[in-house]
Specification:
With 345 residues, this protein is an alpha/beta fold. It has 2 domains: 176 residues, Rossmann fold (3-Layer(aba) Sandwich); 159 residues, Rossmann fold. β8, α4 and β9 form a beta-alpha-beta unit. The model has no long low-confidence stretch (mean pLDDT 96).
């Protein structure tokens, strides 16, 4: 599909795009860029200099500030974000994955700016969204929307299924993948593991050190409860191969939950709290189970053998693949460009 359209993808610079380990927003930005290039779009990816892409790479910050602590995060952001707007005239559309900060530049250029909102991190950022509410926005789930914003669509995040081979048979262990933070309910996963008598492997970056020290580390014995730190794609696949189920016992409404789709892609059933987008991503009784509390989650483990692992992967292919996501974004781009064209008539 040759479109002739020029699009700029603004990725965060906390991590490399795509990330080597953690970095959900960078993962999505990378998948969109790669998918668009494959479909004939002229794409420029604004990301860290060590990023890997088949699009044109435009970088002013060499490494992600989370990976190189000699870089000041604010300096990196204010070198990186304005760069795409200084080159705005070169593009038909700017697709931002940089939260509220990039909105401050959006009215300074004529090029339309589409913002994918990957989540509202704090009520304190909402005044910026209110000020720029007439922009173009995409939500990543129907449950994670702010009233009053000009949403063009909901587009679910998509993953590259080729990275996650199907595991016909799992193992006996429970796994947790994600940020070590109270929001992600690692302490609840530990409680479920202890109730069920199953081993639990915890993988992820420690985002809240006090929480880890107080509510996670005391239970890590290296045998029944293991903590292995952050893992790359190969590390995830090793966990998926030995997983009985993935536990995602979030304590706040989930925005999307990329790891849910990654696990399902490998055929791993997911047990998640019924908060936020989990009901949209996990089909209860088909690709996993939704629970309301720890006891319910523990009881769900008994029903895991009922899940058809192939159905898990098939649903991801239909709803959460990179190809599905990119096709939907193409439709969103068309809507935005048509609306912009009407403004000039």
């Amino acid at each position: 599909m040759k479109t002739g359209r020029r699009v700029a993808i603004l990725s965060p610079v906390a991590w490399r795009t795509p990330p080597q380990q953690y970095g959900a927003w960078e993962t999505v930005a990378s998948n969109i860029a790669e998918g668009l290039v494959a479909r004939g779009w002229d794409v420029t990816l604004f990301a860290s200099g060590d990023s890997v892409t088949s699009a044109r790479l435009h970088a002013v910050v060499e490494h992600g500030y989370e990976e190189d602590r000699s870089i000041d995060p604010k300096v990196a952001e204010y070198l990186h974000i304005p760069e795409v707007f200084e080159h705005a005239v070169e593009f038909d559309l700017i697709h931002s994955h940089y939260d509220f900060m990039a909105l401050a530049y959006s009215r300074l250029v004529r090029t339309p700016v589409l913002t994918t909102i990957h989540g509202f991190s704090s009520p304190k950022i909402l005044p910026v969204y209110r000020k720029y509410s007439d922009g173009y926005f995409v939500s990543i789930s129907n449950s994670d929307r702010m009233p009053g914003l000009n949403y063009v669509a909901t587009v679910y995040n998509g993953i590259d299924l080729s990275l996650y081979p199907f595991q016909q048979r799992g193992g006996d262990d429970l796994i947790f993948l994600g940020r070590i933070h109270p929001d992600k309910g690692v302490h609840l996963a530990i409680e479920v593991a202890r109730l069920s008598g199953r081993k639990l492997i915890i993988a992820g970056i420690i985002q809240d050190a006090a929480y880890f020290e107080e509510q996670v580390k005391p239970y890590v014995d290296g045998v029944n409860i293991r903590f292995i730190g952050p893992v790359d794609v190969a590390g995830k696949n090793e966990l998926f191969a030995r997983a009985y189920a993935l536990l995602h016992l979030n304590t706040i409404p989930e925005r999307f939950g990329l790891v849910l789709t990654e696990a399902n892609a490998a055929g791993v059933p997911v047990i998640a709290m019924d908060l936020g987008s989990c009901r949209e991503v996990i089909r209860d009784g088909v690709t996993g189970f939704l629970a309301g509390n720890v006891k319910e989650a523990s009881r769900c483990l008994e029903r895991v053998p009922q899940i058809d692992r192939r159905a898990c992967r098939q649903r991801v292919k239909q709803c959460f693949s990179m190809e599905t996501m990119v096709e939907q974004y193409e439709r969103v781009y068309s809507i935005v460009l048509e609306l912009e064209a009407k403004k000039t008539i």
